[in-house]
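thought: user wants a sequence for this fold. calling inverse folding tool.
action: design(structure=
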């Protein structure tokens, strides 16, 4: 049986037109995706995509390492400067120094050695650091070196116990805490205590500063070599400064007492004006 090509073509064309009409009719009814078995609600699509992605995001978050930002670096000297500048009285400065947390010497010390004597004195003595006796009593210059210091200044009519500011002494140290085995303070330790010492001088407002030994010469004058510096008047923080040998040095080197006596006489002459 032969196939009539014209009849076949008309049948195919008729089927295509019928299919197209059926498709257009379905689209009018809302079936916009002809490849699906059911009409697609596109309003639900975004919510389904978010819901499907959420478990993956949570899993990724759990798998990712927790990165802790580094703690901000603390500048101990800046902290000391801020604490010292906020102190408006000697008592406030003592409290600021006692609560200062960044100097490890504090951990091994029994006491904070702040000062002794009359804070209204014309002369302020700055020593090095507490020794054993000073650490035990919480006062500067109370050991053998302190006893010699008292005798030295008594020879020119000055003493820490005097209620008269004209004849009194006010005594402090560069370091308020005893270094282990009485070692010298490190540059870092001295830098931390520098703002407290300077503020101490500002609040006490002495007429003269006497620095006794190498450590206070470095802290106040930024110079080393006390045997070379001693006896030479200079200036620091707006005050006259007289460097002198430390009494502990004099105990080890009694011959140097004559230089100390010359310095005491120089101080006496300066005070008499």
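)
observation: tool returned 273 residues.
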């Amino acid at each position: 049986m032969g196939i009539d090509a014209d009849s076949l073509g008309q049948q195919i064309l008729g089927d295509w037109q019928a299919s197209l009409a059926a498709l257009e009719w379905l689209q009018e009814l809302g079936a916009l995706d002809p490849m699906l078995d059911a009409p697609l609600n596109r309003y639900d699509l975004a919510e389904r995509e978010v819901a499907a992605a959420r478990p993956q995001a949570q899993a990724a978050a759990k798998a990712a390492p927790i990165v802790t930002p580094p703690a901000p670096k603390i500048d101990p000297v800046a902290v000391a400067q801020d604490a010292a500048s906020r102190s408006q009285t000697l008592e406030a400065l003592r409290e600021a120094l006692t609560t200062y947390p960044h100097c490890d010497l504090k951990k091994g010390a029994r006491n904070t050695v702040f000062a002794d004597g009359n804070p209204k004195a014309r002369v302020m003595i700055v020593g090095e650091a507490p020794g054993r006796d000073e650490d035990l009593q919480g006062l500067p210059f109370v050991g053998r070196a302190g006893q010699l210091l008292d005798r030295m200044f008594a020879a020119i009519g000055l003493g820490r116990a005097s209620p008269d500011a004209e004849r009194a002494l006010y005594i402090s140290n560069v370091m308020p805490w005893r270094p282990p085995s009485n070692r010298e303070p490190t540059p870092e330790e001295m830098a931390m205590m520098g703002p407290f010492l300077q503020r101490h001088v500002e609040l006490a407002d002495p007429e003269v500063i006497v620095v006794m030994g190498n450590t206070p010469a470095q802290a106040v004058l930024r110079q080393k070599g006390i045997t070379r510096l001693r006896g030479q008047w200079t200036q620091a923080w707006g005050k006259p400064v007289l460097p002198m040998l430390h009494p502990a040095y004099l105990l080890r080197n009694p011959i140097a007492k004559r230089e100390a006596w010359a310095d005491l006489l120089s101080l006496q002459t300066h005070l008499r004006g």
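thought: summarizing for user.
answer: Here is the designed sequence. The first helix runs from residue 5 to 28.
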